[in-house]
Amino acid sequence: MTQAGPEQADAALQKLLAREWPDVAGQSQPLARWRGQPLLINFWASWCGPCREEMPQLEAFAQDKARHGVQVLGLAWENPASAAAFLHETQVSYPVLVASGGVREILTALGNPAGGLPFSLLVDAGGRLQAVKLGAFRAGEVARLVAQHAEANGRNLK
């Protein structure tokens, strides 16, 4: 887990949550659309081997959303055509948007100055950053992270 200072990370997260990015079909989607629900935001790219390897874990977690109450949201940090081509072959049920300008600054403020991928944020229903993960999730790790956070804070993420 990697983390920046709480004030810097919170400001970056709020900037991120206020953004709009297109989905792979080119339709603009505001992240505010998911306000009020816990989010697992995953920055990835089709050319990133570890990103590709973790997608089945994210998909399995997203399919089990009813149990965990957390919405998975993919942010592809690449050109829309590449993201769309990859998702045509590797379909996922969770929403995927194409992130562009300002991503590096947000990642840096969240403790990822090198812009390493994959990079995931666990955000509670109130829009507060709960955990940051640099690197690919392994089998069962997503659910463990959510459960660990909920237990450590004495509350459910829902």
TrEMBL record:
InterPro entries attached to this UniProt entry: Redoxin, Thioredoxin-like_sf, Thioredoxin_CS, Thioredoxin_domain, Thioredoxin_ResA/DsbE_sf
Main location: other
Cellular compartment(s): Cell envelope
Keywords noted in UniProt: Cytochrome c-type biogenesis, Disulfide bond, Redox-active center
Entry annotated with the keyword Disulfide bond: yes
Keyword Disulfide bond: yes
Residue span(s) of domain Thioredoxin: 10-151
PANTHER family: THIOL:DISULFIDE INTERCHANGE PROTEIN DSBE (PTHR42852:SF6)
Protein name (database record): TlpA family protein disulfide reductase
UniProt organism field: Uliginosibacterium aquaticum
